[in-house]
Amino acid sequence: MVKSTRHAKYELYYHIVFVPKYRRSYLTGKTRERLEAIFTEICEDKGLELAESEVMPDHVHLFIGSPPKNAPSLIVNWIKGISARKYNQRYDDRVKWTRSYYVGTAGSASKGAVEQYIAEQEGGDK
C-alpha cells in the first residue's frame, strides 16, 4: 500500500537477514518469542512497519516497511543494536549479533516492470 509523508509518496520495504554471533542455534523457544516482541516494539517506536518476521534457530528474517528518510543501514543498526540491548537488560541469557547483515529492497513493482515503464516513457515523448 502506498503511504505518504508531507512531501513524498512511497512504498519501501526491506528484507533484512542477520545472524547471532558465532552462528549458534539458540534462537528458539522463549528466546524466539522475546525477540519477536522486541522487534515489534522497536518498529512501533521508530515508526516502521514490521510486515513479517521469522526468527530461525540460527538467523533472523525481517520484512520492514519504512519512510524514505530512513536509510537501510540505519534501520538495521536500530534493529540489531536496540534488540540486543533490550534483550540483555531484561533477561539473564544474552544475545549478540554479528556485524554483518543482508538487506534487499522490495516494493510493488519488479525491476523489470520499472525498466519497461521508463522505456515506454522515453518512446512517448517523440
Automatic annotation (TrEMBL):
<dbReference type="InterPro" id="IPR002686">
    <property type="entry name" value="Transposase_17"/>
</dbReference>
<dbReference type="Pfam" id="PF01797">
    <property type="entry name" value="Y1_Tnp"/>
</dbReference>
<feature type="domain" description="Transposase IS200-like">
    <location>
        <begin position="9"/>
        <end position="121"/>
    </location>
</feature>
<dbReference type="GO" id="GO:0004803">
    <property type="term" value="F:transposase activity"/>
</dbReference>
<dbReference type="GO" id="GO:0006313">
    <property type="term" value="P:DNA transposition"/>
</dbReference>
<dbReference type="GO" id="GO:0003677">
    <property type="term" value="F:DNA binding"/>
</dbReference>
<protein>
    <submittedName>
        <fullName>Transposase</fullName>
    </submittedName>
</protein>
<dbReference type="InterPro" id="IPR036515">
    <property type="entry name" value="Transposase_17_sf"/>
</dbReference>
